Amino acid sequence: STAGVLVASREVRLNHGEYAMLYCMAIHQDVFSKAQLDEAAWGEEYLHGTNSVENTIWRLRRKLEEDPRHPPYINTVVG
């Protein structure tokens, strides 16, 4: 299933994991670990070595950010 969000007056379709992760980040406006984002999106324990969180974040950046390689909204904090 998909959900729509508005970005600069245009509708962007997000899948369940993308929407849940974005909702978590938007509501709490905090820094989250991969495990916390995985739990928010799929309600599962994060399996180290998987790329599910990174892939979802990359899709969100491509859909929401003007320049996904230099995102002003969804940023990665190392450590």
Question: What can you tell me about this protein's structure?
Answer:
It is a single chain. This protein is of the alpha+beta class. It is 44% helix and 15% strand. It contains three helices and two strands; from the N terminus they run ββααα. It has helices at 16-28, 34-42, 52-64, and strands at residues 2-7, 10-15. A two-stranded antiparallel ribbon has the order 1-2. Strand 1 (2-7) and strand 2 (10-15) form a beta hairpin. The longest helix has 13 residues, at 16-28. It is globular, with a radius of gyration of 12 Å. The mean pLDDT is 87.
Layout of helices and strands:
Blueprint: E1 2-7, E2 10-15, H1 16-28, H2 34-42, H3 52-64
Core attributes:
single chain, alpha+beta, two-stranded antiparallel sheet
Describe the main β-sheet briefly: 2 strands, antiparallel
Low-pLDDT sequence parts = none
Structural class: alpha+beta
Q: Give the mean pLDDT.
A: 87
Side by side, the strands of the main sheet go: 1-2
Number of helices: 3
Q: C-alpha Rg, in Å?
A: 12 Å
What percentage of amino acids are in beta strands? 15-25%
Q: What's the oligomerization state?
A: single chain
Coarse shape: globular
- What is the total tally of β strands? 2
SSE run: EEHHH
Distance separating the two termini:
33 Å
Helix content: 40-55%
